[in-house]
Amino acid sequence: MSVRLKRTVALAAAIASAMALTACGGSKIGATAAPSTSTSHAPCGTVNIADNPWVGYEADLAVVQYVLTNKLGCTVKTQNLTEEVSWQGFASGTIDVILENWGHDDLKKKYIDQQNVAVEMGETGNKGIIGWYVPPWLAKAHPDITDWNNLNKYATNFKTSETGSKGQFLDGDPSYVTNDESLVKNLGLNFKVEYAGSEDALIQAFKTAEAQKTWMIGYFYEPQWFLSEVPLVHISLPAYTPGCDADPKTIKCDYQPYDLDKIARKAFVDSGSPAVSFIKNFNWTNDDQNSVALDISNKVTDAAAAKKWVDAHPAIVAAWLKTS
User: Fold this and answer.
1) Closest Cα partner for 41 from 277, 303, 222?
2) What Cα–Cα distance (Å) separates residue 92 from each residue in 31, 54, 298?
3) How far apart are CA 323 and CA 172, in angstroms?
4) What angle do CA 140, 144, 146 make, to 5 degrees?
């Protein structure tokens, strides 16, 4: 999830290999589902959609794939990729759509402005908030901890065997773009950034910290279904102002709030597929996304979670499918 996902540093050969492997599959809800027999739309063909590693994106993908497959007769293929590698797919022709983009002005400049292989497809309707959070019990027990100026006062309470005398600051998936190591250094905080390894592991760590009343501070974001279960409390960092994060090495401000958007391969947009109009129209709220993501997190299949939401919101889906 910009500043949402940590840029994956990989050799070009490794990236190419990864994309070749994932191109064979990765679909969660029936990538080769039988096309609809409806004749009210032009042939849709195949739509290749990136699947980025967080459950909110999975909720977007579940609903978009369900509608494309069942309403427009498309064949949908998904690829499990990190954000930056997804953008590379616009140039190689292996990715048609990224459904939830968190900023990435540098990638927009490269692939939209310079290479002219991608275009913006409008906002998703979701509002993205990234930041530092603590479990509710901790904020209630120590109200001043929500001000970053007071974090060093409590730092040793967060220490682990891995962090020595420093407090642990927990990040999630290593592929997420974060400013946390620079913020810790530039704000003079006595913490060390560690990685939980995945979104699920990060959620479990916060869940355990709240249940067992243990000390924890870490990176988190909205929209996210987990916040309706455990209302994490946001830490106030120095306020974000435009340009304050221009140099990752010297950054001292909070994360930029995002109006999340969609990006598509230019050749796909120019193809005449009815999928293009639908994806451009796709727009919903944080609550909508969280409701589908919560079902998925509760082990409902992606297809079933998507069908439940689509069946409950026919007017919204009809608006997405309008071509004029």
Assistant:
1) 277
2) 20, 24, 36
3) 40
4) 80
Closest CA to 269 of 112, 139, 163: 112
**What is the distance between the alpha carbons of residues 83 and 1, in angstroms, rounded to a whole number?**
8
Packed helices 55-71 and 302-312: angle between N→C axes, nearest 10 degrees: 70
DSSP 150: G
Per DSSP bridges, beta strands 46-51 and 75-80 are: parallel
- Please list, in sequence order, all residues whose beta carbon lies within 8 angstroms of the beta carbon of residue 272, skipping any fewer than 6 positions away: 42
Integer Cα distance of 262 and 264 in angstroms = 7
**CA 96 to CA 281: how far, in whole Å?**
16
Closest CA to 126 of 101, 106, 158, 162: 101
Distance CA 238, CA 189 (A): 13
* Structure tokens that stand for 221 in this block: 């974001």
Per-residue pLDDT of the chain (324 residues; tens, 9 = 90+): 544 443 333 333 333 344 333 333 333 433 333 333 333 557 899 999 999 988 899 999 999 999 999 999 999 999 999 888 999 999 999 999 999 998 888 999 999 999 999 999 999 999 888 999 999 999 999 999 999 999 999 999 999 999 999 999 999 988 887 999 999 999 999 999 999 999 899 999 999 999 999 999 999 998 888 988 899 999 999 999 999 999 989 999 999 888 899 999 999 999 999 999 999 999 999 989 999 999 998 999 999 999 999 999 999 999 999 975
- 138 φ, ψ (degrees, to nearest 5): -70, -40
Terminal C-alpha separation, the chain: 32
pTM above 0.85, yes or no: no
* CA 295 vs CA 56, 80, 292, 302: distances in Å: 11, 20, 5, 8
Query: Residue 145 in 3-state DSSP?
Result: helix
Burial of 88 (0-12, 13-18, 19+ CB in 10 A): buried
> Sign of the CA dihedral 125, 55, 279, 316?
negative
